[in-house]
């Protein structure tokens, strides 16, 4: 798959309810490699997108009559969720940049598991984002996250899978300089960007960064 | 406030979107003490409930013309979310059992912060639950959580604010006996109750327990 692997992106589309398919579709680029995790196929069909790969146990839906380019059928009894199985298959195929859609809302168990999946990708040094109608999120293991076009937007940071994280912020209303945030007192919530460029340095993570639209 | 404090429950109602107010109202008992956190008042009004206390900075809504029994106005610039301020005020007033409603959905930053708030309560030995249209969740610091009327229901467990937790389960399809779950591989997701009584023992936490309705 060559050079495409280095620059391209793998979108894994889960089965969570999508209220605004046009908004979700706007996140997808022409050259994304699209994996549907089980019921995520329904969302792809609503968006008029033909996935490159369908993976799932099909315990909650029939296998589609009109199949995508390729289908992998998983056993119903397995350790991984369909979303995680899709991510692992994407990694096996050489992708290093991931966007999860259809990953939040409805079933909270799946939402939390999908945030854990971001962490799973982060620990392997992979670009990981999740997006829904109102939010984008990524886990940063360690290093610098630069975000542009941010002025006025809400930015939240939480320790993830750890009791605390050590952070510096630039470009936010409440800046931090090598300060610790603890999970039990979520004081990194709903900060606001005061410049176009926001720089979040995670000295010690993992940190979950959430960009939310205002109501 | 005497004996009521020991047996009663404090409901903190947040501003997250409530799609099915009748379902949310069904969680509330006649003798609950109800705190509305800022925009949570709108949900209370939709449910026809007059709160005992309204607390907030009112940055996203006007102070209501028809006020609840009591109102506390917070500064707009503060470390705590309105939900956390409501919880802390409830603790100050002596409550030890909490249910958070209007706490999930829409703004993911608030959803995550509200899960952290469950942990905040758990660490003080307090009963803590959060509920929405499809899910109930609680954080267990250490000890035994017994759940009844569970047969066939989905039960998920995740480490929370920690890289791992040590668990035993009884009454679930995939039982555990003093086994470790790690945050980065969410294998505690979507287990299923096979008996009416489910017993989750958290030997080392915190653990987030999520009960989800099926789609």
Short description:
The first copy, chain A, has helices at 3-7, 21-25, 40-47, 82-92, 108-122, and strands spanning 10-13, 33-37, 53-56, 71-73, 97-101, 127-131, 135-140, 143-147, 154-159, 164-170, 179-182, 191-192, 198-204, 207-212. Chain A is of the alpha/beta class and 215 residues long.
**What is the number of beta strands of chain A?**
14
Give me the strand/helix succession of chain A.
HEHEHEEHEHEEEEEEEEE
| Residue windows where pLDDT falls under 50 for at least 5 positions of chain A | 1-6
Helical content of chain A (DSSP H or I, runs of 4+):
10-25%
Largest sheet of chain A: 10 strands, mixed
Assembly type of the shown chains? homodimer
Q: With helices defined by DSSP (H or I, 4 residues minimum), what is the helix count of chain A? A: 5
Structural class of chain A: alpha/beta
Radius of gyration of chain A: 18 Å
Q: What value does the average pLDDT of chain A take?
A: 92
Shape of chain A: globular
Percent range for β-strand residues of chain A:
25-35%
Cα end-to-end separation of chain A: 42 Å
Biggest protein-protein contact in the assembly: A-B, 46 and 46 residues
| Order of strands across the main sheet of chain A | 4-3-2-1-5-6-7-14-9-12
Structure explained in plain terms:
The structure is a homodimer of 215-residue chains. The first copy, chain A, is of the alpha/beta class. Chain A is 20% helix and 32% strand. The first copy, chain A, contains five helices and 14 strands. Chain A has helices at 3-7, 21-25, 40-47, 82-92, 108-122, and strands at residues 10-13, 33-37, 53-56, 71-73, 97-101, 127-131, 135-140, 143-147, 154-159, 164-170, 179-182, 191-192, 198-204, 207-212. Chain A has a ten-stranded mixed beta sheet, with helices on both faces. In chain A, β2 (33-37), α3 and β3 (53-56) form a beta-alpha-beta unit. The longest helix of chain A is centred in the middle third of the chain and has 15 residues, at 108-122. Chain A is globular, with a radius of gyration of 18 Å. In chain A, 48% of the residues are buried. Mean pLDDT of chain A is 92; it is low at 1-6. Chains A and B meet through α5, β9 and β14 of A and α5, β9 and β14 of B.
């Amino acid at each position: 798959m060559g050079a495409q692997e280095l620059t391209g992106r793998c979108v894994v589309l889960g089965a969570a309810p999508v209220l605004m398919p046009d908004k979700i579709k706007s996140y997808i680029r022409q050259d994304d490699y699209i994996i549907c995790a089980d019921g995520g196929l329904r969302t792809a069909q609503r968006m008029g997108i033909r996935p490159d790969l369908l993976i799932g146990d099909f315990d909650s839906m029939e296998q589609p009559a009109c199949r995508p380019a390729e289908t992998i059928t998983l056993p119903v009894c397995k350790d991984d969720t369909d979303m995680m199985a899709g991510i692992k298959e994407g990694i096996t195929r050489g992708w290093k940049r991931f966007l999860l859609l259809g990953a939040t809302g409805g079933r909270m168990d799946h939402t939390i598991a999908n945030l854990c999946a971001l962490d799973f990708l982060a620990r392997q040094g992979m670009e990981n984002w999740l997006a829904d109608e109102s939010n984008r999120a990524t886990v940063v293991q360690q290093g610098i996250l630069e975000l542009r076009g941010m002025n006025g937007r809400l930015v939240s940071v939480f320790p993830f899978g750890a009791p605390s994280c050590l952070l510096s912020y630039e470009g936010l209303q409440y800046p931090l300089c090598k300060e610790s945030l603890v999970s039990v007192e979520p004081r990194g919530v709903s900060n606001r960007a005061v410049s176009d460029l926001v720089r979040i340095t995670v000295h010690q993570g993992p940190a979950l960064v959430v960009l939310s639209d205002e109501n």
